[in-house]
Structures are given as structure tokens and as C-alpha cells.
Amino acid sequence: MTKKLKIFLIALVVIIAGVGGYLVYNSQKSSTTEEKVVTNETKSSTKKVQGDGKTLVVYYSAQNHTKDVAEKVAENLGADLFEIEPKEKYTEDDLDWTNDDSRVTREHEDTSLRNIELKTTEVENWDQYDTVLIGYPIWWGIAAWPVDTFVKNNDFSNKTVIPFCTSASSGLGESGTKLQKEAKGGNWQKGQRFSSSPSDSTIKDWADSLK
Questions:
Q1: Is 2 exposed, middle or buried (0-12, 13-18, 19+ CB in 10 A)?
Q2: Which pLDDT tens digit goes with each residue over 101-135?
Q3: Closest to 82 (Cα-Cα) out of 72, 70, 73, 91
Q4: What one-character-per-residue DSSP string does the chain give?
Q5: pLDDT at 170
Q6: Which residues are CB-contacts of 138 (< 8 A; sequence separation ≥ 6)?
Q7: What is the largest distance, in Å, between two alpha-carbon atoms of the chain?
Q8: Please, which residues have CB within 8 angstroms of residue 113's CB and are 6 or more apart in sequence?
Q9: What count of Cα atoms within 13 Å lies in the side-chain half-sphere of residue 44?
Q10: Tens digits of residue pLDDT in 44-100
Q11: What is the pTM of this model?
């Protein structure tokens, strides 16, 4: 074998080895990239309101506005429903806030009257829920007070709590913050205000944003 042939064969081996190494490196790099894409897709599909437990929508509705929203949110999320019901139901006359002698007006003026007795504050299988949405109408800038009784009587530890309200003009205000102060524990989130008669698409868009 001549000296030139030996040099040629050695160069050829070096070139083949380099190409092989490059192909292996690119294969590994591509695999790593694919793994990162899969991981990111998995993270982005993580649901905000559903974990190992279930989701519950709790609501108090004086004139069915909040009830309508709560039912549609629960349907969208596949959540359970629980209605807060006062033992002494509010009548239309009771709810007439323009009447100085109506029930809600007297309760607004005298906070000692706001300890509203409910039919029950106990939710079956309460411990199984890891996310609780609480809906209510706004009364004088805060949550309707029957909701206070429910919140005070339940332990929200280790639960994510998301308030929402319905009102003709008022915003959510500090209603969620005030309920949080009354509650035992819970990871309270920013809430959502709906008009008295929101569209189905508005309700759905918010519920979808929680998934």
C-alpha cells in the first residue's frame, strides 16, 4: 500500500466518524426538543379548577339572577350545585330596598340582624371538593348576608375559593375580601361580576377561563 493511499483511507475514516457523530447529536437534540414540546403542552392543558377532588358551585339567589348564572357555570364545569337557603325566605316586599321599613333595609341598618339562619350549612361530602365557587347578589356593595352564615360555618382549608356576583350596577367590590375574612382558611381568588341578566356566552367565557 502506497503512502498516499494510507493517507486517503485515514482521512476517509475521520470523515465517516464525524458525520456519524453529527447525526447522533442531531437525533438526541431532536428527541430533547420533542420532550420539551410535550411537557409544555401538558402544562398548558392543566386545569385551574379541577384537581384530585371535585368542584362545587355554592350560591344564594334572592331573585333567581344568581341561580341562573350558577347553574350555567356548574354545567360548563361539570360541577355540583349547592343552594344557600334562609329558613325565612325573603319575599318581594322584604327585598324592596327603597322601603325604609323593609327587611333588607332594616338588616342593612342594624348589622345584628344579619345573622341569617339557614335551612342547612352542611354540604354532603364537603371534604371531597378542592374548588368552591361562591355566587351571590350584591346588597349595598357587599355579598348578600345569607352567604356570610354559610361561609362562617364551613372550613375552607385546602380549598381554592372563587367568588362571583350578580348586580344591576355595582361591581364585585370588596365582597370577596370580606367573605375571606369571615372564612376559615381557603385560597381565595379574584372574583367575577355579572350583570343581572348576562348572556350565555359571557357566562361560558368566564367558566371556560377557569378550566
A1: exposed
A2: 999 999 999 999 999 999 999 999 999 999 999 99
A3: 70
A4: --HHHHHHHHHHHHHHHHHHHHHHHHHHHHHHHHHHHHHHHHHHT--SS-SSSEEEEEE--SSSHHHHHHHHHHHHHT-EEEE--BSSPPPTTTT-TTSTTSHHHHHHH-GGGG---BS----TTGGGEEEEEEEEEEETTEE-THHHHHHHTSB-TT-EEEEEEEESS---TTHHHHHHHHSBS-EE---EEEESS--HHHHHHHHHHT-
A5: 86
A6: 144, 165, 166, 167, 170, 171, 172, 173, 175, 193
A7: 117
A8: 106, 107
A9: 6
A10: 323 466 545 699 999 999 999 999 999 999 999 999 999 999 999 999 999 999 999
A11: 0.75
Name, in order, each residue with C-beta under 8 angstroms of 183's C-beta and a sequence gap of 6 or more.
Answer: 151, 152, 154, 156, 161
Residue with cell 426538543: 33
